[in-house]
Design a protein that fits this description.
By secondary structure, the protein is an alpha/beta fold. Helices cover 29% and strands 29% of the residues. Strands 4-5-6-3-7 form a five-stranded mixed beta sheet. The protein has a two-stranded antiparallel ribbon with strand order 1-2. Helix 4 packs parallel to helix 5.
């Protein structure tokens, strides 16, 4: 199932006027290229389980996060609980931002805030991100309450 846009929300943020688009469908199947796709994992667990985004990336795109983690572009796990892959040859996205949820030392709110720290690191290193796709991190098989994830996302 291709990603279908359900709604667009436009808000004024500290970085200017931004549009947030709500999509429904199969994550690896965007109808356009995104520069960065965020995915969540249980801290340290990269097994591509069926029914998860990681499983879909593995089954649909042949992408195994365990392989990407062997040589990431930026490994920010210790400081920020996330890491960024090198460029990926995929028609739907160029890089992955892997966010380790329920990592010791990081609250859910801080983990979500660190997604934006990672974006700042990419920008500081000259990696341009025009399109950034963020599913509701941790709300699938990890079972986090979507309200806990949406609030810090909208605060940024």
């Amino acid at each position: 199932m291709i990603m279908e846009r359900i709604n667009v929300i436009e808000i004024d943020t500290r970085w200017g006027y931004k549009a947030f688009e709500l999509y429904q469908g199969h994550i690896p199947h965007f109808d356009s290229q995104v520069d960065l796709l965020a995915v969540s994992v249980l801290a340290g667990d990269y097994y591509p389980e069926a029914g998860t985004v990681i499983g879909a990336l593995y089954d649909t795109c042949g992408i195994d996060l365990r392989d990407l983690l062997e040589d990431p572009e930026f490994d920010l796990r210790e400081a920020f609980g996330c890491w960024v892959s090198k460029e990926i040859l995929d028609p739907n996205f160029s890089r992955l931002l892997c966010v380790e949820m329920l990592s010791p030392g990081f609250s859910i709110e801080e983990t979500i805030q660190n997604v934006f720290v990672a974006l700042s690191v990419l920008e500081a290193k000259g990696i341009v991100i025009h399109e950034f796709a963020v599913p509701l991190l941790g709300t699938g098989s990890l079972g986090l309450d979507p309200v806990l994830v949406i609030k810090p996302l909208l605060d940024y």
